[in-house]
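Sequence in, structure out. First:
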Amino acid sequence: MKRDMDLIRELALWLERKEDHALRKPEDIRIEDYGFDEIGHHLNLIYEAGLISGEVLRSKSTPDRIIQVWPFDLSWVGHEFIDSVRDPEIWAKTKEGTYAVGGFSLDLLKALAKGFLKKKLEQHTGVEIDL
């Protein structure tokens, strides 16, 4: 299954909106236009990327293989990610930039989004920030 950065962003936003830090079953997470398999796969990905904390079910025959992640909350890295891509305009520009070059990594995506945020902050405050 192909990695879907829109779904990763939506999952992070969904987790951020939750007021409690209770364990979530993947089947209880509803994101419009995405099914259970896609959501489950992407929860595994964002857990492996360090964006969320959660309970992990691993394969008994292959312990390194994650079967399912039940997320608790965003990690510090997850909060940093969502803060950089929260604004829909920034997110659209970030995706447009990555599609223009034909590929991206999570780190590149965050750096590009932070660049757009920095530019927007400078336009609103007149203050230049060195990130």
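Second:
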Amino acid sequence: MLDQTSKQGTDERRGAERKPVSLPGTLIFDNCTEDCTVFDISPRGANVTASNRVPIDRPIKLKLTRHGEFVGKVVWRSGDRMGLKFLHLSDDPKLLLESDGNGIRLVS
């Protein structure tokens, strides 16, 4: 069961291809922190897993070690999976993702 916002049709709304990753991170919201794992990421958002206490449609930071912090909000959630929409990045995918010999790396 999806909470508040359905993830159906998100591929069409993204506008930027997400890259598969497996990165540990921290979500920061309402003076709380929650460990998470990022499963895919693009300049516009990310798919993460974390506890279902993370609020929908409120400001949130995704902190990735060695990659910086990304401001956004949770736009959908299904159990412990959720979609983040980044609020401060441009449409240019080179501002966030670059390819290298080992896959991708994030650039903040």
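Remark: The CA atoms of residues 44 and 93 lie 8 Å apart.
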